[in-house]
Amino acid sequence: MRAGLFRAGVIIALGLGVPQGAAAQQLGVVTSDVIVIDAERLLSETDYGQRLQREIQAERDRLIAYNDRVASDLEAEEQALTEMRSESEPDAFREMADAFDAKVTQLRQDSERMSRELERRRDLAPLQFMRVVQPVLSELLQETEAVVLLDRRSVLLHAEVADVTDLAITRINATVGTGPQSLPEPQPEENGAVEMPELPAPGGD
């Protein structure tokens, strides 16, 4: 009788040690202390990452078109001003020339400012992306029973089974889709640096 109870106790004990790993395997997720993702692939292959890149490229194209239009208008205005030189009083022409130079300077500054803003948005796109997909990666961290999730580029050597990039892409597309319609730009820190979000530890603490 006691032998039977002992065997039953062993079966229960073994059963208690199985559920998390078994659940992870049923979900197609490897159980590992450390998992890795290819962050560049997440940004380039997910629907949301591709949308962010399309928007940035569209803004770049608009800025190029704007600069081309401004350059063409200024060239025509300069040509007209040159033709007026022989017909204008020196003082009057000098005033027109100074006004034109001031206009060119202002437009150049505006163009440089818009270029910097576009560059900043391009640099912040990965940060915005990670903030939105963070819950999906957090779930993967818990399902795999991992304690850390690393970018593949920072790992010298790893087993392919620890790479969950393909699964992360599938999950992000299913959960996030093309992403939120609007997303406030993260504000830089006082020193100009932008802090990357930390992934929550397993258990959501």
Question: What do you see in this structure?
Answer:
With 205 residues, the protein is mainly alpha-helical. The chain has a domain of 143 residues: Protein Binding, DinI Protein, Chain A. It is built from six helices and two strands; from the N terminus they run ααβαααβα. Helix 3 packs across helix 4, helix 4 packs antiparallel against helix 5 and helix 5 crosses helix 6. It starts with a helix and ends in a 30-residue tail after the last helix. Keywords: Coiled coil. One of its GO terms (molecular function) is unfolded protein binding.
List keywords for this structure.
single chain, 205 residues, mainly alpha, Protein Binding, DinI Protein, Chain A, two-stranded parallel sheet, disordered N terminus, disordered C terminus
Strand order of the largest sheet: 1-2
Rg calc: 29 Å
Main sheet, how many strands, which sense, barrel? Answer: 2 strands, parallel
Q: Shape, please?
A: rod-shaped
What is the average of the pLDDT values?
Answer: 77
What is the CATH topology classification name of the domain at 34-176? Protein Binding, DinI Protein, Chain A
The residue fraction in helices comes out at 55-70%
| Strand content bin | under 5%
Task: For the record, give the distance between the C-alpha atoms at the N and C termini, rounded to a whole number.
Answer: 45 Å
Number of helices: 6
| Weakly predicted, low-confidence segments | 1-27, 186-205
Name of the CATH architecture of the domain at 34-176: 2-Layer Sandwich
From N to C, what is the helix and strand string? HHEHHHEH
Overall number of strands: 2
Class inferred from helices and paired strands: mainly alpha
